[in-house]
Design goal:
Layout lengths: L1 E4 L4 E4 L7 E2 L13 E2 L17 E9 L4 E8 L4 E7 L4 E2 L1 H8 L1 H10 L6 E9 L5 E9 L5 E9 L16 E7 L7 H7 L7 H6 L23 E11 L3 E11 L3 E9 L2 E9 L8 E7 L4 E8 L4 E8 L4 E8 L4
Antiparallel strand pairs: 1-2, 3-8, 4-5, 5-6, 6-7, 7-12, 9-10, 10-11, 11-12, 13-14, 13-20, 14-15, 15-16, 16-17, 17-18, 18-19, 19-20
Length: 331
């Protein structure tokens, strides 16, 4: 997954773009709808019958005038994510299919987004005779010895042919990033993943499953000196499935800590605080938030300038959160 951004907003996008589609299309419109949390009953794909690890959250959005349907599955309360891009009335072009078949392309794109010095082990090819399932998965090992499971592959999820020139090729792109203690059964995932509506076992199993309940990641503020200073700040927050937008807030702080409050909806307010390790670097800090709807989040602030901060973190389910803060001059 690649990240594009500036000091005000950050947008997440996968390596495969809508330009990789072919077939019958409307005029492209690259606008994104907001990510929305959805129920297992409304999920597009049959993860319940293909995954051997707990599911924490499911989110959906559409883009390109509904030509591309995205679905994110968050696993094990922060252990990982499976990102899916599905085209309901089209399919991916031959160039994209060739890229998915290319082991070198898989290796390069995976290592480019990994920490420096990481290596891939046990690279496994996925390809059926009809090429309706193609790609690779592997173990990604960093310099500290941590091993994660990664995968990039395509499948044909639709059972029907949509146009005369439709040959039943790949219409769905899947990207896996998982670092849980219990290994993900990649062979089953890559072999059995399909649209939920085409899986009778999935439909019948819905009554026996629910999303995993994740513990709070909020940490109470440490005892510290009084927060005797105040400063206004402009906040941009991208919390998929919860909130995406801008607001002005008031930060109370001292030389190593601070607190703030944000309003995410009429019924959901969050109280947050941050703590720096040293007065010499007061803007390089850890942060936490606790919200009235029961959700929580934690992460780090990374100063970009003396008044511009980028905050990265995740909520209790593992959903990635981005914060952009512009500190106003003066009080």
């Amino acid at each position: 997954m690649r990240t594009f951004g500036n000091n005000k907003t950050v947008i997440m996008a996968t390596a495969l773009a809508a330009a990789a589609l072919t077939g019958c299309q409307t005029t492209p419109n690259n606008s994104f709808s907001s990510w929305r949390a959805t129920s297992l009953e409304q999920a597009r794909f049959n993860m319940l019958t293909t995954l051997n690890v707990p599911i924490s959250d499911v989110q959906q959005r559409s883009r390109n005038n509904g030509q591309v349907l995205d679905e994110d599955w968050w696993l094990g309360c922060g252990d990982g994510q499976i990102h899916i891009e599905h085209v309901p009335v089209s399919w991916f072009n031959t160039a994209t299919v060739s890229t998915l078949k290319d082991k070198h392309a898989f290796t390069k794109s995976t290592l480019n987004s990994a920490s420096e010095g990481s290596t891939l082990k046990d690279i496994t090819s996925i390809e059926t005779v009809t090429s309706n399932r193609i790609g690779y998965y592997a173990d990604l090992v960093n310099l500290d010895g941590q091993s994660c499971q990664v995968g990039k592959f395509g499948i044909r999820a639709k059972e029907d042919l949509t146009f005369d020139n439709d040959r039943g090729t790949v219409d769905t792109y899947v990207e896996v990033n998982y670092c849980g203690n219990n290994r993900l059964d990649m062979a089953t995932l890559t072999s059995n993943l399909k649209l939920a509506k085409n899986d009778e076992e999935y439909i019948s199993s819905l009554t026996d499953h629910q999303l995993e309940q994740c513990p709070s990641v909020f940490q109470e503020a440490s005892p510290a000196s009084p927060l005797d200073q105040s400063r206004r700040a402009d906040l941009t927050i991208i919390w998929p499935g919860t909130y995406s937008g801008n607001q002005t807030l008031n930060v109370l702080y001292n030389d190593v800590a601070g607190k703030f409050s944000v309003v995410l909806s009429e019924t959901n307010n969050c109280d947050g605080h941050y703590e720096a390790d040293s007065p010499e670097t007061p803007l390089k800090a850890r942060w936490w938030m606790s919200c009235s709807n029961g959700s929580s989040a934690k992460g780090y602030f990374y100063p970009e300038t003396s008044k511009s901060l980028l905050g990265k973190g995740q909520d209790e389910k593992g959903v990635k959160i981005l914060l952009g803060i512009e500190l106003n001059t003066g009080a």
